[in-house]
C-alpha cells in the first residue's frame, strides 16, 4: 500500500489588481516587492485588467511598491 503525504507549503503567491482612486484599472503599472529580511525582490507589470501575480514568495515581511506613469508611487512596508 502506498500513501501520498502533503507537506506544508513553504511559499506563497501574491495576487492583486491596481486601480486608481475612481476604481479604474491601471494597465502597465509596475508592482515591486522586497523581502525586508533578505533584500531579495521581484517585480511584475499589471496586465490589461490591472492584475498581477507573483508566485513563489518565501515567508517573511515584505515592502510593496506600486508605480505607474501619471500616478503617485504607493508604498506599503507591512506585508
Description of the structure:
By secondary structure, this protein is an all-beta fold. It is built from no helices and six strands. The protein has strands spanning 12-17, 30-35, 41-45, 51-57, 62-67, 74-76. The strands form two sheets. Strands 3-2-5-6 form a four-stranded antiparallel sheet, with no helix packed on it. A two-stranded antiparallel sheet has the order 1-4. A hairpin with a 5-residue loop joins strand 2 (30-35) and strand 3 (41-45). The protein is globular, with a radius of gyration of 16 Å. The N and C termini lie far apart (43 Å). The model has no long low-confidence stretch (mean pLDDT 91).
Top keywords for this entry?
single chain, 79 residues, mainly beta, 4-stranded antiparallel β-sheet, two-stranded antiparallel ribbon
Mean pLDDT: 91
Contiguous helical run count: 0
Largest sheet: 4 strands, antiparallel
Poorly predicted regions are none
Shape: globular
Helix/strand-derived category reads mainly beta
Number of strand elements: 6
Distance between the termini: 43 Å
- State Rg: 16 Å
Task: Give the secondary structure arrangement, pairings included.
Layout: E1 12-17, E2 30-35, E3 41-45, E4 51-57, E5 62-67, E6 74-76
Antiparallel strand pairs: 1-4, 2-3, 2-5, 5-6
Question: What's the short version?
Answer:
This protein is mostly beta strands and 79 residues long.
